[in-house]
């Protein structure tokens, strides 16, 4: 029985896509966090509305960068990709805002720490569904 090494994974199609998506995801996470902080602390917008706005803006940036640098256009039409991305993002924002709410309201965690944690959890969800479902590699 042979095992699949980390090196083999990183050289595989999904491994290369994961590496590129990590860079795109990190860039979009910074956009998400910066906009969240600006809205929450600079403009005194409620954390759930700040989280929703920053998530949608970073999701749009993620789509554009993912098509350009990670997945290409895939096999689906642009309209199908956008509709599927909306479905995936709806679940993603539900997870994100749910974790944000539990972190802040239930656990008493600082809003930025809760936001970073929620982003990390949703990151894996986003990559896997985009790779296998939205862009259908």
Can you put this structure into words, describing what you see?
By secondary structure, the chain is mostly helical. The chain has one domain. It contains 5 helices and no strands. The protein has helices spanning 6-11, 13-42, 47-71, 78-106, 111-134. The longest helix is centred in the N-terminal third of the chain and has 30 residues, at 13-42. The radius of gyration is 16 Å and the shape is globular. The mean pLDDT is 90.
Give a concise summary:
The protein is mainly alpha-helical and 137 residues long. The chain has helices at residues 6-11, 13-42, 47-71, 78-106, 111-134. The longest helix has 30 residues, at 13-42.
The Rg value, from CA coordinates, equals 16 Å
Give the number of DSSP strands.
Answer: 0
Helix coverage percent: over 70%
How many domains make up the 3D coordinates? 1
Terminal Cα separation, in Å? 27 Å
Overall outline: globular
- Could you give the order of the helices and strands? HHHHH
- Please tell me the overall pLDDT: 90
Protein structure class: mainly alpha
The percentage of residues in β strands lies in under 5%
Total helices: the number is: 5
Q: What are the low-pLDDT stretches, counting only 5+ consecutive residues below 50? A: none
Largest sheet data: none
Features:
137 residues; mainly alpha; 5 helices
Q: What's the SSE blueprint?
A:
Blueprint: H1 6-11, H2 13-42, H3 47-71, H4 78-106, H5 111-134
Helix pairs in contact: 2-3, 2-5, 3-4, 4-5
């Amino acid at each position: 029985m042979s095992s699949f090494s980390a090196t083999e994974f990183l050289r595989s199609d999904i491994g290369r896509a994961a590496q590129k998506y990590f860079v795109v995801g990190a860039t979009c996470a910074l956009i998400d966090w910066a906009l969240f902080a600006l809205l929450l602390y600079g403009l005194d917008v409620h954390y759930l509305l700040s989280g929703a706005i920053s998530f949608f803006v970073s999701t749009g940036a993620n789509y554009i960068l993912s098509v350009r640098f990670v997945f290409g256009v895939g096999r689906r039409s642009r309209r199908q990709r956008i509709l599927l991305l909306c479905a995936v993002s709806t679940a993603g924002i539900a997870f994100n805002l749910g974790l944000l709410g539990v972190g802040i309201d239930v656990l008493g965690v600082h809003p930025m720490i809760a936001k970073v944690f929620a982003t990390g959890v949703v990151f894996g969800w986003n990559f896997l569904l985009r790779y296998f479902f939205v862009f259908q590699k």
